[in-house]
Design goal:
mainly alpha, 2 domains, 2 strands, 67% helix, flat, disordered N terminus
């Protein structure tokens, strides 16, 4: 009887415990209303977005910034020594090394390892776009963040694409060092002055005359139009610089050939 009583007590205790667990489980698995679900899950997303996600991105940008700094600064090794070091690093890690791959891609892969090729491509595009825009190394991480992150930068355009706004910004940075063609000074021009536009770029709409003078008909401050004009100016400057560089390269090549001929003689 005592044994049966003990078994009964144990059975009752187990049943009570089971019911308690069921109630606890039911409480934990409470079905939320749509409003409750949306509010709670939104808060969870905001906590992640403003916490772990932000911190992870900051750390990623910091790593990419180091890659960018390395690529933008001469460490004194020279291309051959640098390339040999990269190749040796790849061999030690067991990565396939392709010399024709952009240097930025090779550096990124060395740092991030044998991960998804699309991820390496994304980081490489971001770095090469920063190079094309001549982003200061100290501003690199902030530039990525301002542009919405690495994916937004990648999706923007090709690695060689530079937006109209960024071209205008590039001209603005070089403005003080650029040659001034002329200073337009006239009382009627002064009457067009708006104090809020002081030290801001503008566009003078003019006609070139046969005697080499320019008849200015208006002053434009519309941001998009001014940016387009500055972007066009930058393209023209870059084309001229490429032409000068090509001509110099041709002269250097001819001089080298002449030197070789003299030595052979």
């Amino acid at each position: 009887m005592e044994a049966m009583s003990l078994m009964a007590d144990v059975s009752v205790a187990n049943t009570a415990k089971s019911l308690a667990n069921d109630k606890s489980t039911t409480k934990q698995k409470k079905i939320l209303t749509t409003a409750e679900f949306l509010l709670q899950t939104e808060k969870q997303r905001l906590d992640w977005e403003n916490g772990v996600y932000v911190e992870a991105n900051k750390q990623l940008y910091a790593v990419l910034a180091r890659c960018y700094f390395f690529l933008m600064n001469d460490n004194g090794e020279g291309f051959k020594q640098q390339n040999a070091a990269l190749e040796a690093f790849y061999e030690k890690r067991g990565y396939a090394y392709a010399k024709k791959t952009p240097l930025a891609s090779r550096v990124v892969r060395a740092v991030f390892g044998n991960v998804d090729r699309r991820r390496i491509s994304t980081y490489s595009i971001v770095i090469r776009r920063a190079m094309a825009l001549q982003i200061e190394t100290k501003d690199f991480a902030e530039w990525i963040d301002t542009n919405g992150g690495v994916q937004e930068v990648r999706l923007g355009r090709s690695a060689t694409y530079v937006s109209k706004k960024d071209k205008a910004l590039s001209v603005a940075k070089r403005w003080k060092n650029m040659q001034t063609l002329a200073i337009a000074s006239d009382d009627r021009l002064r009457m067009q002055r708006v104090r809020d536009n002081d030290n801001k770029h503008c566009l003078l709409v003019a006609q070139q005359n046969k005697d080499g003078t320019y008849a200015i008909k208006g002053v434009v401050h519309t941001k998009g139009i001014v940016e387009q004009a500055m972007a066009t100016l930058l393209s023209s400057m870059n084309a001229e610089e490429r032409s000068v560089a090509k001509a110099k390269q041709q002269v250097d090549s001819e001089a080298a050939n002449d030197a070789e001929v003299k030595v052979a003689a």
